[in-house]
Structures are given as C-alpha cells and as structure tokens.
Amino acid sequence: MSMNFSSFFKRKLHKEENNIAVIGTPTNVNHDIHVTVDEKGLLTGLPSAWMRQIGTQITKDEQRENPLVVKQVLKYYNFSIKKGNEDRPEFKHIITERDIVEESKQIDLYTQSKDAHKSKDSLSDSEQKEDKRSSYPVRPPRKIDGSNLIQTKTLAQNIVDLTLVDDTKKEEVEIRHKSDSTVDLNEDGDDMLRRRSGMTDEDYMIEIRKICNPGDPDDFYERSHKDLGSGASGLVFAATCIKNGELVAIKDIDMTKQHKKDLLLSEIKIMKNFKHKNLVNFLDAFVVNDDHLYVVMELLDGGPLTDVVTETVMKEGQIAAVCYEVLQAINYLHERGTIHRDVKSDNVLLGMNGTVKVTDFGFCANVIGNEQRETMVGTPYWMAPEVVTRQKYGKKVDIWSLGIMIVEMLDGEPPYLREPPLRALYLITANGRPNIVRWNTLSEKLQSFIDLTLQVDVDRRGTARDLLQHEFLLERMELKTLTPLIRAAKKMLHKT
C-alpha cells in the first residue's frame, strides 16, 4: 500500500483556547514484552496468541523453570513464521555474520511491534499449519541392514572484505549489509538498496546479462526428459554437459516474477567465485529471451545423505569420511565470511562413487527441485541453541549442526524429530546438548569429536579448521565404501 509520507507525518493544527494543552495520541509506543511468573507458576505478560501456541507443548513446570527460555523460543518462532509468510525468495541468499546482526535487530523490533501483540481467538491458518508441522514430515524408522552392522579464531567480517565483488558494485553490497538500528520491518533491505543505488530493474538486467554466458544453453547442455521439480521460480530439470558428459541441474528462473534483481546480481557474482570440490557448485548462467535466467549447477546421482542414514547403518570410519568432506566445505565457506546455517543430511548430496558435496546455499539451494518453504530460519532440529538466544551467534552454528548430523548418522534421525517445531526449539534451548543413545558404544575418538561439535558454550566449540585436524578423521574410510550403502538405500526406497 503506497503512502504519502508528508501527509502521514503532517500534524493537525489546533487553536489554543484558554492556554489549555491539547494532549495527542501517543506516538512511538513501545510494545516490549515483559514476562513474569504468577503465584501459580504460570507465565504472564505474553501475547495471548503466543500463550495459545504453548498449548501442551511446554508444560507448566517447564514454564515455571525456564520462563526466559519460553519467551525467547516464542519470540524466535513467531518472527520466523512472520518472515516465512512474507519472504518467499526464488533462492537463498548468502548469509554473513553482518546479516545475522541485522536479523537479530529485526527480531527485537518485531517483539515491540503490534504484529507480536495481536490478540486473536485462534491462530491464523498459516500458524495452524506450522503447529501441525506440515513442513517437517516425520521420517520413518531406520531399517537395519545386517551386512553393515557394527578453540575460537577471529571470524571474517563479511563478504565485502573479500575480493569477490567488483569494486564498482562494492557500495551496493555494503549498503545491503549495513547495520541500521532504525530499520523498518515493513521495508525490505533489498528495496532499500534499490532506492539508494538509483538503479532500475532494467539496469540490473543489463548487468546480469554482462556476467552471464552470452551463448545458447542448448549448445552446451542437452536436456533430459527428467524434471527435478518446480516451484515459485520455475522449473528445475536435469541435463547433460555436451562437452564432458557430466550431469547438471538447470534452474529456470522466471525473471518477470523475480523482484530482487539487485540481490540476484550480487549473488551471481559471488557464486561464480565459490568453487570447491565439496560444494554443489554453480557452473554457468544464461539469460534466455530477456525474461528467463537459466542457472546451471552440479547434480549428483547418489541422492541425499538422508537416504543412507535412514535406510542403513554407517560404520564409524564412514561417518569420519563424510565429516571430513563436509568440514572441508564448511571451512571453505567460513573462510569467505559465509555461514551455511542449514547443515543437515538432506543438504549433503552423494555421488555413486562416494563423492560428498554440500548444497542448499545461494543459487545451489533446492538443486533437486524441492522448493517447499521452511518457515524456520534453518531447520529447527539441527539448530544451535544460540540461534534462539542470539548469544554469540556466528559461524559455529554450522559446527553444532554438523554434530547433530553425526547423531543422524548414528541413530537415523536428529534428536526431537518426533516433536513439533515449537517444542523442539524449547528442548534445544533449555537442554542444550542432547542425549546420544549409543554414546557408551562409541569410540573415544568419536566421543571427543562429538564433544567439540556439541558444546553449548560457543567459545569451547571447535572451529571447522580445528576439527579438520582431529584424530577421529584419521580413522576415515575410503569414500568408495559409501557406494554399497547408497545402492542399498536406493533399492529400499525404490529409487533405482
């Protein structure tokens, strides 16, 4: 809804009569949430809609014992729902620590806004859907295959400190990442960038065309008949590189529906410089008919690690092999000021030869066409406690998520997967490190490795570089030993 700001702030003039002061309507009202526990041990001061969300998910005893945790969880949960309903991007943009700072400010502003204090008799349809966990299907129990039984460094500041962006565009990226304590939740940061830069959508399209391959994608890739999926951005389909015969995924982004061409431009520039053997790499891009952007990415034929962890049992040496490969990808991203923020088995793709690659960041998100929007900023079951508490929130959230992924490889699923997201967030924040059922059966080296990943104290949690030197990884088996597991999982899931 457009608004004339001059009329919005225009004051009504009042005649002074008998020097009686005219008291106007309060402005800049602060709706901050103050939570207390009453005589019965129940929380008071929370918006009524938030109290209804608690329902049976957080007991009265838990409310009494951890009122601050309950407040933090509800604040984060509701902010995530709000962002999820408003922001449905065609791709994930690359996250830096400065983005995290800005997000934390937005969460604080949200709790002071009227949106957080709406009192309704029932939750909205979208909130009810979230409460039913529609975005987080429960995985089936793992099937056992008897044949296979058995400290802190200075963090990089942000993307603009790197030589990844042309000097002519650094100012735009700096504006995008600039921390602004007066940010309005109703104004998207990218809209702010567009306004300040003075560039139009057509200007951005000109810049995008300049950095894309000017050729015809049909001369480089042969499209297969296999569509990988479709979503808000268009179709994702498989193809084969004519030059080397490698499989690729091509995402067709309908530019007429892409409202953030400024962000898209900077992402392409960054992704073209992100190349690593353990990342699902951005390969090429084409503009077709002036209104479609074709983004070409690697495609692995072994499927996600999730299939292996749910259908087979991995040996410690195989777990070490996967961790070693994933850590190399995480370390690469961290050294470039980037946080993945959603490390989990679903986002680790395998090749039939045992290749391990991390996906789901930047343009490589949704490489297999699954564009179902996760409302949470990152999937809650793999989430580090500091994501909710916002204390020392930085790159080490990826290390915690790696630790939870190890639990997946051991138990077939992460802790609390059978719980609704709100309760899972509470348990993660209140309990910290989860219990590991098979702990006493693990080797000392694996126990030590897990200890470094699942430290609630962020300062004591290992960095990616530190963990790459851990003795547990010296026990890693060859990647080709993953191939029988991949084949077994495919057979069990009828994906062959």
TrEMBL record:
Pfam families: PBD, Pkinase. ATP binds at K251. Its cofactor is Mg(2+). Residues 222-473 form the Protein kinase domain. Residues 111-149 are annotated as: Disordered. Its EC number is 2.7.11.1. SMART domains: PBD (SM00285), S_TKc (SM00220). Keywords: ATP-binding, Magnesium, Metal-binding, Nucleotide-binding, Transferase. Residues 23-36 form the CRIB domain. One of its GO terms (molecular function) is protein serine/threonine kinase activity. Residues 114-134 have a biased composition (Basic and acidic residues). PANTHER family: NON-SPECIFIC SERINE_THREONINE PROTEIN KINASE, SERINE/THREONINE-PROTEIN KINASE SAMKA-RELATED-RELATED. This is non-specific serine/threonine protein kinase. It comes from Psylliodes chrysocephalus.
